[in-house]
Specification:
The protein is mainly α. The chain has a domain at 21-98. It has five helices and no strands. It has helices at 21-29, 34-41, 45-56, 60-84, 88-98. 8% of the residues are buried. Residues 1-9 have low confidence and may be disordered.
Amino acid sequence: MPKIPQHAASGKARKPREMTWDAIDSMLEAGCSGQEIAAFYGWNEDKLYTACKDDKGLGFQEYKEQKRASGKSLLRHKMFSQAMSGDKTLQIWLSKQILDMRDIPKEADADQDTDVVIVFEREDNEAE
């Protein structure tokens, strides 16, 4: 029998929500943990893990990893599509993440000549 959490305001047991695998899949794709999903439904984690084994034929960890990978690919695809549609901020961010581009130029090689400008100022701030 699953543990049913007590509703904080009334002290009465809250009726567990009806579980749907579409909703659980969506929560897993978003990165929710088994503990978070079980709490959302008003279950203990064991009930969720047993339901996964019975309904999906997989252990919860394996099922969760599949859905998280799916969620990551959906997000990556959406971000890429938005960048290709002209979102300049996302284009810059993705170019830094995927192409290893940087805002700051890499340091010059020791063999290259570089100009160094040194400015001296007097303590009384008078220019010479």
